[in-house]
Q: What sequence folds into this?
């Protein structure tokens, strides 16, 4: 009975609430745990941990800044792809069968993206922390690199959501960020990540500011594309 | 009492083609209604329209008073769905699938879900992918019942199941049916429907042929058997006719008039109705 009351109370609030955010996190943990039963999930976890390991290992190894930059880029790519494989967020027919509005579904997807951002943010930031950059440079990189890059990367697993199995092959990409949008968003994130900043001057700002702009644009675009889609399952 | 499901002149259009046209049916509480028809008759489209997978192009579908066109979320909360295909994420265990998807339903209870799983002998720790087809159906039924739906929709879930399980399945459904809940069941298993269903709707080529209670079907349709001469005499009143080895057989609709021939008259099975009303 209490459980029923809890569910009922949860439904009456808005789409972006702490309760729903925490519930989405729990959902993500269960989904990741479930993915580990599959070989795909195990490969995803291995790739994610490999990215974390080589990122931190090279950062601690005392290599030159350029090598660290390249390594940061590669390690983040591995971790992100691993995470995307691990948290297989594909929702097929179920999206249409669950008693939720499109906006509610879109909000839940965005909350999942936020959780993924937090994980990727932690991975990148821990590498910066191990680079012995100095306090000021560390915070510069957290602000200019970790935050926008993790927002861009967090959208990647969501961009691969397919409403219908094999819909990509049939040419239906209802919830997909368009190819150009994905290229712009991730391309900008990778470019931004390629150069570690060590000053607050304008040149160091350009890429991060553009990255902030594209990642926020992509997030809003993605949310709107899910929430405002007026397409039924049978029309896909 | 308010009907659980009320479909008023509903139709579905895809592009310029009508997939379903002018369907009218009502499911009362405590009723088990079967939907029959040949492949491509529109059964799945009807179910898709009811559960929100297909757009309702004309008419309306009302579930416990709520309109599927205007309040789809409210309607979906009242529905338990059992489909042949796997629409749940199969990586999840039975228990975790309950936790994740149950959270979307107001009246869902995980304790009830686990109780139903025990009752139906479904291992809650088992991965959905590893469940047998029968167990997967039982899982879907347990999940549906745990959120207390008013309507249980089943679209040919019994395909590929052995006859013993099919009978057990129907018994199970009959046990869970109560005065607050109705069942709409699309199937090709006409024998099972004859035993269990209270009402039946027949579709043919995207149109509704009839929607009647089993009693009305018995009263309105009759099978008549006789010689060729007798059947020729009745031919204008027959809806369909076929030649057997030693006699001929036909279906006619009761119109209150006498037959005027010494032919044997019997109750038609649902398969007979499908054959005579929907064959070439």
A:
């Amino acid at each position: 009975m209490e459980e029923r009351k809890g569910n009922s109370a949860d439904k009456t609030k808005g789409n972006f609430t702490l309760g729903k955010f925490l519930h989405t996190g729990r959902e993500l943990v269960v989904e990741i745990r479930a993915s580990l039963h599959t070989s795909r999930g195990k490969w995803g976890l291995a790739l994610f941990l490999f990215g974390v390991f080589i990122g931190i290992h090279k950062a601690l190894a005392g290599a030159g800044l350029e090598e660290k930059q390249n390594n940061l880029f590669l390690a983040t790519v591995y971790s992100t792809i691993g995470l995307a494989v691990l948290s297989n967020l594909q929702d097929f027919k179920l999206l249409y069968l669950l008693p939720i509005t499109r906006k509610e579904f879109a909000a839940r997807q965005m909350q999942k993206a936020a959780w993924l951002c937090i994980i990727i943010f932690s991975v990148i930031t821990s590498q910066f922390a191990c680079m012995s950059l100095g306090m000021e440079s560390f915070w510069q990189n957290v602000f200019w690199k970790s935050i926008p890059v993790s927002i861009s990367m967090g959208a990647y697993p969501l961009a691969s959501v397919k409403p219908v199995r094999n819909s990509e092959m049939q040419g239906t990409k209802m919830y997909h960020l368009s190819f150009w949008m994905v290229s712009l968003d991730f391309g900008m994130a990778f470019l931004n990540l390629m150069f570690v900043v060590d000053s607050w001057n304008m040149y160091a700002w350009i890429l991060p500011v553009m990255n902030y702009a594209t990642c926020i644009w992509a997030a809003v675009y993605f949310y709107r594309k899910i929430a405002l889609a007026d397409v039924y399952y049978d029309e896909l | 009492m308010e009907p659980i499901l009320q479909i008023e002149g509903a139709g579905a259009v895809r592009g310029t083609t009508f997939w379903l046209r002018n369907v009218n049916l009502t499911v009362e509480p405590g009723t088990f209604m079967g939907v029959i028809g040949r492949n491509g008759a529109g059964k799945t489209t009807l179910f898709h329209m009811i559960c929100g997978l297909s757009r309702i192009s004309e008419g309306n579908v009302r579930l416990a008073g709520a309109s599927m066109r205007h309040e789809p979320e409210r309607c979906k909360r009242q529905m338990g769905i059992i489909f042949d295909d796997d629409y749940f994420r199969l990586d999840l265990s039975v228990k975790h699938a309950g936790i994740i998807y149950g959270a979307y339903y107001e009246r869902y209870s995980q304790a009830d879900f686990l109780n139903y799983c025990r009752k139906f002998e479904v291992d809650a720790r088992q991965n959905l992918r590893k469940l047998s087809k029968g167990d997967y159906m039982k899982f879907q039924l347990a999940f549906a019942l745990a959120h207390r739906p008013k309507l249980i929709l089943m679209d040919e879930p019994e395909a590929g199941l052995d006859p013993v399980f099919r009978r057990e399945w129907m018994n199970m459904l009959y046990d869970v049916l109560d005065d607050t809940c109705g069942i709409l069941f699309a199937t090709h298993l006409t024998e099972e429907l004859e035993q269990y269903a209270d009402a039946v709707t027949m579709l043919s080529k995207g149109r509704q042929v009839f929607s009647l209670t089993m009693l009305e079907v018995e009263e309105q349709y009759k099978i008549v058997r006789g010689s060729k001469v007798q059947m020729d005499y009745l031919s204008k009143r027959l809806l369909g006719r076929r030649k057997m080895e030693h006699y001929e057989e036909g279906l006619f609709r009761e119109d209150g008039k006498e037959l005027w021939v010494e032919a044997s008259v019997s109750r038609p099975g649902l398969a007979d109705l499908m054959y005579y009303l929907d064959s070439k």
Observations:
- Residues 55 and 75 of chain A are 5 Å apart (CA to CA).
- The mean pLDDT of chain A is 78.
